[in-house]
Each structure stands twice: as C-alpha cells, then as structure tokens.
C-alpha cells in the first residue's frame, strides 16, 4: 500500500500574513521556495565574512550604478520569495520601499554556500533560471571557487563558468567592472 503525502503550499500573500500575524517572526530564519517554507541554515563565520567582504567589494565597485542588498527578500513569483545572500539591483529612488524587487529589477544574484551547496545549486539556481534572472554567482566556500550562471532558458542556464583563485570575473550588466576571485575569499 502506497501512502500519498500531501503538502500544503503557500502563496506569498499567505506567507506575509503569517509574518504580520506573528506566526513567523524575525527569529524564524526562513524563506518561501515554490510554496514551501524552508528553514535556512544558520550562518557560520566563514559564510558571514564572505558575504560582508562581497558586500563591501560590490558597493565600492558598483557605487551609483546598482543597489546592493544583503540577505533581503526578492519576489520571484506568487509562491517564491527567497532571500539571496547578495542582490545586485537596478537603482530605484524609493529603495524598493513600495515592494520587493522582482526579476525585472535584478542584474545579479549571489548565493554564498557551504553546507547548502546542493540545495542552492539544484533547487535555487533552476528557480532563478525559470524566472529569467540573467546572472547568478554561486560562491562555493568548500571548493574555493565561483560558479557563474548566465543565459537562462526554461529551468536551466545555458552558460556555466567556473572561476578559481587567481582569476577575475566580471558582470554581464557591467562588463567594464571585474572582481578578483581572491578578493571574494579573502
């Protein structure tokens, strides 16, 4: 006998109602992925240091060209509101006070990964491709490399480049600006 397990999927609206009513609080480190509320892994010191280092680098390199957000929600669809480690966004006068950024606002998303590398690579990256996010950087703390995904089509990226220590990578949206991989890992 096979038992079918049914899951209750949530919309972004229902997710926000849970936050507003106090069911989910600031202490709940969660994000909404494809209708499911996913508990995020605790942030370790290597992860936090890498995100802080990237934030400083990107703010200095992209000052007045883009808005850099750290671990803040983006609205991908009616059932997904992830919180990437870094979002590089089009500048807006209201700093997205009127609503979270959507795919049309996004230049690049960055996920810094150690214990979550498989989830980020196999779940989040395909969702970002499906939603036509033009560029994703997956910073792999375990292998000390950056995976750069470009050219989304359906649920996959047509281009994957891997950058190692000693190499430089730049942005599709800002080809004149490059980052040394060594700077990301410190």
If you had to describe this structure to a student in words, what would you say it looks like?
It comes from Leptothoe spongobia TAU-MAC 1115. Residues 14-181 form the Putative restriction endonuclease domain. The protein has one domain (42-185): tt1808, chain A (Alpha-Beta Complex). The protein has helices at residues 12-20, 45-62, 117-130, 181-185; strands at residues 30-33, 36-39, 67-70, 86-89, 106-113, 135-140, 145-153, 156-164, 168-170, 178-180. The chain has four helices and ten strands. 25% of the residues lie in helices and 29% in strands. It is globular, with a radius of gyration of 17 Å. The model has no long low-confidence stretch (mean pLDDT 94).
CATH architect. name: Alpha-Beta Complex
Give the termini separation: 54 Å
Question: What share of residues are in beta strands?
Answer: 25-35%
Average pLDDT number: 94
Report the C-alpha radius of gyration, rounded.
17 Å
Q: How many helical elements?
A: 4
What's the gist of this structure?
The protein is α+β, with helices and mostly antiparallel strands. 25% of the residues lie in helices and 29% in strands. The longest helix has 18 residues, at 45-62.
Structural topology:
Layout: H1 12-20, E1 30-33, E2 36-39, H2 45-62, E3 67-70, E4 86-89, E5 106-113, H3 117-130, E6 135-140, E7 145-153, E8 156-164, E9 168-170, E10 178-180, H4 181-185
Parallel strand pairs: 5-6
Antiparallel strand pairs: 1-2, 3-4, 4-5, 6-7, 7-8, 9-10
Features:
186 residues; tt1808, chain A; two-stranded antiparallel sheet; alpha+beta
């Amino acid at each position: 006998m096979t038992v079918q397990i049914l899951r209750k999927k949530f919309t972004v609206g229902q997710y926000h109602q849970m936050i507003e009513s106090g069911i989910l609080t600031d202490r709940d480190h969660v994000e909404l992925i494809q209708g499911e509320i996913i508990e995020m892994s605790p942030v370790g010191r290597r992860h936090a240091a890498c995100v802080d280092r990237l934030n400083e680098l990107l703010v200095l390199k992209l000052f007045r060209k883009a808005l850099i957000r750290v671990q803040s929600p983006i609205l991908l669809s009616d059932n997904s509101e992830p919180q990437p480690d870094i979002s590089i966004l089009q500048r807006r006068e209201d700093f997205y006070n009127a609503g979270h950024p959507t795919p049309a606002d996004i230049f690049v998303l960055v996920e810094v990964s150690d214990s979550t590398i498989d989830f980020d690579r196999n779940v989040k990256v395909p969702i970002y491709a499906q939603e036509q996010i033009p560029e994703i950087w997956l910073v792999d703390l375990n292998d000390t490399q950056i995976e750069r995904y470009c050219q989304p089509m359906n649920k996959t990226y047509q281009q994957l480049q891997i950058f190692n220590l000693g190499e430089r990578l730049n942005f599709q949206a800002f080809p004149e600006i490059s980052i040394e991989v060594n700077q990301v890992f410190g």
